């Protein structure tokens, strides 16, 4: 299964276009450098995007970069970040499948495009409000219907629930104003996590809805005190089908690379305490795995 983070909110609309590559100083090798995977090198080539903050940053300071570094260390390998200037949505097709790197972080457990590892962490979607405003307790909370603009990504698991509650379509013009009315039909376009937070902090939006790992850093850095309220994982759409709001995030490797998947599993399990410390530092709720 793909997550709303991996496919819909980031819309895996995959295009066969050339990648722009960049390498963070001192972190690893550029794509195409034979030294990046020579027989004598003990390296873990990690697919990464410079356009994926706060998960990944070009200086490898993203919290998932830190997790990958810890796991590589546990495997006795040097982490080599293979950077793309393209959004992370293209990582599997344009990097991993083309053998430019060997593992990608941040896919759903069970993502059918890849072999996935054991879950690394579990996180969910949240409501974001100003602390001086009332909290939103759920999609059926009457305050949500009178909150004004709702800042969120264009394709979030909130969308079908909001459609059911008849509060989505009136919000669409506002959402498209946040991306300059660019159409996502032929290009990647979405509302950035920091934009969601700043819209709520400024009062332009009464509520924000986001995957908590995407926004936790910006919530903590906000000059305006904000409140984060977890969305319960019992939502349904208009047809009664369950709409998950929490997801197990894993690593993915090529389907023919079971040995690497198995080695990553052992390293992840051996690194749990260090991974938990990284998640705690990032400041979002990490739910029990497979819950």
TrEMBL record:
CC per GO annotation: periplasmic space
Residues of the Solute-binding protein family 3/N-terminal domain: 43-282
Family matches, as Pfam families: SBP_bac_3 (PF00497)
Any one of the GO BP annotations: methanol catabolic process
Chain coiled-coil ranges: none
Keyword hit for Signal: yes
Signal sequence region: 1-30
The UniProt record lists the keyword Coiled coil: no
Keywords: Signal
The name this protein goes by in its record: Extracellular solute-binding protein
Source organism: Acidomonas methanolica NBRC 104435
Lineage: Bacteria, Pseudomonadati, Pseudomonadota, Alphaproteobacteria, Acetobacterales
